[in-house]
Amino acid sequence: MAEHSDPLELLTGPSAGEVLAAAVSATGAELLSWQPVQVDHQTDRTTVAYRTQLSTGSAVLCATVGGSLPAGVTVVGDEELQVGVWLAGNDPLLPGMRAAMDPVAVSSLFESLGLGSGAVRLELRSYRPLRRAVVEATGLAGRLFLKVVPPGKVEALHKRHRLLAGGGVPAPRSLGWTDDGLLVLETLPGRTLRGVLRSSGELPDPSALIEMLDRLPVELVDAPRRSSWLERTEYYARSVGDVVPELAARSAELATTIVAESHVGPVVPVHSDFYEAQILVDGRGVVTGLLDVDTAGPGDRIDDLACLVGHLSVLAEVLPRHAAAIDEYGARCLATFDRHVDPRQLRLRIASVVLSLATGPHRVQEPGWRQATCDRLNLAERWVNRSDSLHDERNHHVSNA
């Protein structure tokens, strides 16, 4: 394996093939092709998931470098540089993946929970190595979802789903959990708001989204707190500089401006990741579901509102064919949200959200991810400029009063 000081280059460049081939050969198989599909670059660790074709069939392989390698991975390298490699079904920090990817084990689990018996068909819907996964299970019990999290988090997540679903929030009800970190969730009706935006369907009134957030139970204030977009702004800026070094100065300057001009609102229950892929809507535009409540807890309401508008503004650039409809709905949301929070602070927080999404194209290794990262940085800067325009307009009115 060639020497590398840059973990991103090591795990996404040509040397990644050498690493994966060495790990696969230890099992007696041969690596035929590989493609990175998920990149998680942190300060102390870089982890990448790959879509691969082996001599034994297709597989999702993962590799990580940095810090102490998790127990149970195949180690490639020497004392100077070691990379841990594993199959998705053997994630070292998500032991529930073994059962979640095994139709026999899932069928047995459903039977033990009183959900019926019989064969099930499994599909891995999302996977963040070492963090979480979602598997769709279809069988006699209908369609259910298995969420896999680190074992130490599963009971609290089960209780959070029960709390929300029992308190008037349309979150999926938890049907049970296992000690190894597997949570069984019911399926809710409707399509994601993102899907509705792509098909010109009936959209929910933005005030209905506010009302749903208002129903979040007060008990969430006592849950673990997730750091806010504002608190992570400088980290997001450094991430941009890590993947596109020529943007480092601009992103750092932008982050400095956002942090200097922002202030924090009162602590209330929040979703913490509130955007169009987490909201389900029926054919009449009625909200029917709120997904991924893992990080619901105490926070600033402006974060939830900024998260949605920020994602919509990025989505309009990602889906140019639907940009007009997405921008129109984003403008409706912004006008409604402006009546509930400080409009200037909202735009600054939207800029933080967009900055957090700037490295998304690199994370999933989209073609042209460098230009896409630059485009998103430009968009974040435009949101700051819009906040400045509001500030100048207010000062003008005050001076003429």
Describe this structure in words.
By secondary structure, the protein is of the alpha+beta class. It has 3 domains: 7-88; 96-185, Phosphorylase Kinase, domain 1, CATH 3.30.200; 191-396, Alpha-Beta Complex (Aminoglycoside 3'-phosphotransferase, Chain: A, domain 2), CATH 3.90.1200.10. Helix content is 43%, strand content 22%. It has helices at 7-12, 15-25, 96-100, 103-112, 151-165, 193-199, 206-214, 233-243, 248-261, 301-318, 323-337, 343-356, 360-363, 369-400; strands spanning 31-41, 46-54, 57-65, 74-77, 82-87, 120-128, 132-139, 142-148, 174-177, 182-185, 191-192, 267-270, 279-281, 287-290, 297-300. The chain is globular, with a radius of gyration of 22 Å. The mean pLDDT is 93.
Q: Output the radius of gyration.
A: 22 Å
**How would you characterize the largest beta sheet?**
5 strands, antiparallel
User: Which stretches are low in confidence, meaning pLDDT under 50 for 5 or more residues running?
Assistant: none
Strand content: 15-25%
What is the count of β-strands?
15
Domain tally:
3
What do the pLDDT scores average to? 93
Q: State the end-to-end distance.
A: 70 Å
> Which architecture of the largest domain per CATH?
Alpha-Beta Complex
CATH class of the largest domain: Alpha Beta
Q: What is the global morphology? A: globular
CATH homolog superfamily of the largest domain: Aminoglycoside phosphotransferase (APH), C-terminal lobe
Number of separate helices: 14
What helical percentage do the residues reach?
40-55%
SSE pattern, N- to C-terminal: HHEEEEEHHEEEHEEEHHHHEEEEHHHHH
